[in-house]
Amino acid sequence: MFPATERKSGVRFSGVLKPASLLLFVLAVVLAVAGIAWDSGWRGDFSFLHSQADGTARIQTARLLLKSGQYAAAKAQLRPILAEAGTPLYRPAQLLQWRIDWSQTMALPGGSVAYQQALHRITAELRGLLSEGAWPAGQWKAFALDAWRLGAFDLSAQAWLAAARENPKGSRLDMESAARAMAAAGKVVEAGKIRLAMAEKDRNPASQTRDFMAGMAWIVSGDNPQLSLDLGRAYLSRMPALLGSPSVIQYMSSLAFAADQPRLAAKWLKAGLEKKPMDLTS
Q1: Domain coordinates in residue numbering, the chain
Q2: Chain mean position to CA 33
Q3: Tens digit of pLDDT per residue, the chain (282 long)?
Q4: Nearest to 215 by CA among 231, 237, 191
Q5: CA triplet 37, 40, 42: central angle to 5 degrees?
Q6: Where do the H-state alpha helices sit in 151-258?
Q7: 73: how many CB neighbours lie within 10 A of its CB?
Q8: I want to staple 22 with a disulfide (CB 3.0 to 4.6 A). Which of 17, 62, 78, 233 is the partner?
């Protein structure tokens, strides 16, 4: 067939490499690539042959093992991936490892010593995951919920605040959740400051007043009238629109009385009666 084709078209195939020449050509290319790799620091390690496909298969297998309650076997599947930080599958493997540890802990008898020890371990593990940062907003929220279930309310607040920073448009609900978690952790002043910060950023008078009052209520529950008064005045100095609010004026007047500052309380009451904004400089 070929000779006939050559005669009709006038095309010759003498330029096609013979098998021996082709082998030499391939060898030359391989040597050239090896030389470049050697110059780049490669020293014969063929670990790159463990493809991402193998890692994906390991993760899928680990998920199946988790569903069947084979926690140790699931962790063994993830071990090679977790040994190489920074690879594309490292973080998915981290999250799956967390879910395995969570499930294994929750499978233990609730009041047992083993359960308490495992609870301590996964709380530390969650703290480590939060410290790494750079998670998407949805993952921060998932961490926040997990921390709440563990009773690690301070970690829950931390995760909610990170979610709010990651997604500013939807930050209001996240900030409210952070404040509740902070209060649950017994840090009522910090919880109040979160709501006051929300009020400071708000431009709607109604919601701004609501956030200010909610924040102050938490701070006042800390049973430190002077601190409450000082924080209230400090935040109001950055929210001048609230200085004419009757409810805010009455609230600050009561705080001044509680802080044993009757003259200041009288000034707040006078401003309220005259329906004038309170002058914080006087």
Answers
A1: 190-282
A2: 42
A3: 444 444 444 444 345 445 556 566 556 655 554 555 445 444 454 444 345 778 899 999 999 999 999 999 999 999 999 999 889 999 999 999 999 999 999 999 988 999 999 999 999 999 999 999 999 999 999 999 999 999 999 999 999 999 999 998 888 999 999 999 999 999 999 999 999 999 999 888 889 999 999 999 999 999 899 999 999 999 999 998 898 899 999 999 999 999 999 999 999 888 888 878 888 876
A4: 191
A5: 60
A6: 153-166, 171-184, 188-201, 205-220, 225-236, 246-258
A7: 15
A8: 17
Q: What are 137's two structure tokens?
A: 């907003």
DSSP label at residue 185: T
Q: DSSP string of 14-75?
A: TTSPPHHHHHHHHHHHHHHHHHHHHHTT--S--GGGS-HHHHHHHHHHHHHHHHTT-HHHHH
174 near 141, Cβ under 8 Å? yes
| AA letter at 154 | D
101 closest CA partner among 89, 118, 116, 84: 118
What is the model's pTM?
Answer: 0.77
Kindly state the helix (H) or strand (E) to which residue 84 belongs, with its residue range.
none
- Residue 199 to residue 144: CA distance in whole angstroms: 23
> Which of 111, 112, 78 is closest to 96 using CA atoms?
78
